[in-house]
TrEMBL record:
PROSITE patterns: HTH_CROC1. This is Helix-turn-helix transcriptional regulator. It comes from Agathobaculum faecis. Gene3D superfamilies: lambda repressor-like DNA-binding domains. It comes from the Bacteria. Coiled coil: none annotated. The lineage of its organism: Bacteria, Bacillati, Bacillota, Clostridia, Eubacteriales.
Length: 83
């Protein structure tokens, strides 16, 4: 049987890193503000989707991952690296 979740039950690898990068921005960016930035990148997400990504309850598409990397100015691979 195929499993598309991490061992801890998370639906994505990048959620915790997204939360850390978002809160590390200066000035600190809210989930709503990040969702607005995603919309400027052409990705339609709302605050609730960002919250679900950060807590690992939502899968992240490659298009969303690319937009997140652009916003945080990091390579997409960095969002996928497990700490």
């Amino acid at each position: 049987m195929y499993k598309n979740r991490l061992a801890d039950g998370s639906c994505n690898i990048c959620g915790r890193k997204v939360a850390r990068l978002r809160s590390g921005l200066s000035p600190k960016v809210s989930q709503r503000a990040l969702a607005e930035r995603m919309q400027l990148e052409g990705v339609d997400l709302d605050k609730n989707a960002i919250q679900r990504i950060e807590c690992g309850k939502r899968f992240v598409t490659d298009i969303e991952l690319r937009a997140l990397a652009a916003i945080f100015k990091v390579p997409a691979e960095e969002l996928l690296s497990e700490e």
